[in-house]
Design a protein that fits this description.
Largest sheet: 6 strands, mixed
Bound molecules: adenosine-5'-triphosphate
CATH class: Alpha Beta
Strand content: 25-35%
Distance between the termini: 24 Å
CATH topology: Rossmann fold
Number of domains: 1
Structural class: alpha/beta
Number of strands: 10
C-alpha cells in the first residue's frame, strides 16, 4: 500500500533572468511503517520537495497523490482539506500560529477535524520536554523548543504521514533522543509513514530508507 505517491516532480524558480532548477524529476513513494530520511546539501531541494508534498507549493511538472487522491494542481481549499486529512507537516518556515499557545497550536488541526484530543497533545508535549511550556507563545520559545512544538503540532491530530524539516535542529543530545523516539514510535509503533529532512545521525540510524537529494535529483538517479 502506498500512502503518498509523487511522480517526476519539477520545480523551477525564476529571479530576474536567473532560473534555479530546485527539483528535476523526483519520484517518491511513502508506505506505512516506513521511516524515510532525506539527506542533501544546503540548496539541494529538500525544503522545496517537502513543501510540494505538503501541498503548500505546487510543482511545475509531475503529480502528487495522497491516499489515491490527486494533491497537485488543485485549488488551495482542496489541498488544505487533503493536507489536514492525511498529513502532519513541520516545516522550517514554521507551522505554529503566533497568537496561539503551544498547547492550542497542538490542538488546532484536531479541533478543525472534529477530533480535538487534549490528553494526547499534552502527552506528546510532555514527551518532547515541553510540559512546562504549554502556555507559552511561539515568540517566547527558543529555536529548539519551536522545532519540538512544531513537531507536536504536526503529530497531535494523528495523521497517516509526517513530513518534517529538521525536527532536531538546535536541540541537545537528550532531546534529540526524545524526538527520535517519538518519530520512531509514530512510524514503527503505529504503522504510519514519515519523510524527515535531517542531519541527525540518531534519526538516520532509525531510518528504514535514506534518500539523498543532490541538485534537485536523487543522487543515485
Ligand atoms: N522562493 C524561492 N525563490 C527563488 N529560489 C528559491 C526559492 N526557494 C528556494 N530557492 C532555491 O531553490 C534551491 C533549493 O532550495 P531548498 O530550500 O529547497 O534547498 P534545501 O535543500 O532545503 O536547503 P537548506 O538545507 O539550506 O534548507 C536553492 O538553490 C534555493 O536558493
Amino acid at each position: 500500500m502506498t500512502l503518498l505517491n509523487a511522480t517526476d516532480l519539477y520545480r523551477f524558480y525564476h529571479v530576474g533572468d536567473d532560473e534555479t532548477r530546485a527539483l528535476r524529476g523526483v519520484s517518491l513513494e511513502l508506505r506505512p511503517g516506513e521511516l524515510t530520511v532525506l539527506l542533501g546539501a544546503s540548496g539541494s531541494g529538500k525544503s522545496t520537495l517537502l513543501a510540494c508534498l505538503a501541498g503548500l507549493d505546487d510543482p511545475d511538472g509531475g503529480w502528487i497523490a495522497l491516499g489515491g487522491e490527486r494533491l497537485s494542481r488543485q485549488p488551495e481549499a482542496r489541498r488544505a482539506r487533503l493536507r489536514a486529512a492525511h498529513l502532519g507537516v513541520m516545516l522550517q518556515s514554521g507551522n505554529l500560529i503566533p497568537h496561539l499557545s503551544v498547547l492550542d497550536n497542538a490542538l488546532l488541526t484536531g479541533a478543525l477535524l472534529g477530533r480535538r484530543d487534549a490528553a494526547r497533545a499534552r502527552e506528546l508535549l510532555n514527551r518532547v520536554g515541553l510540559a512546562q511550556r504549554l502556555h507559552a507563545y511561539p515568540s517566547q520559545l527558543s529555536g529548539g523548543e519551536t522545532a519540538r512544538a512544531a513537531l507536536v503540532a504536526a503529530l497531535a491530530h494523528g495523521p497517516r504521514i509526517l513530513l518534517a524539516d529538521e525536527p532536531t535542529a538546535e536541540v541537545d543530545a537528550e532531546t534529540e533522543d526524545r524526538v527520535t523516539e517519538l518519530i520512531g514510535d509514530f512510524v514503527h509503533g503505529q504503522g504510519r509513514a514519515a519523510l524527515i529532512a535531517t542531519h541527525s545521525p540518531r534519526l538516520a540510524a532509525r531510518a528504514d530508507r535514506v534518500l539523498h537529494l543532490s541538485d534537485g535529483r536523487w543522487a543515485d538517479a
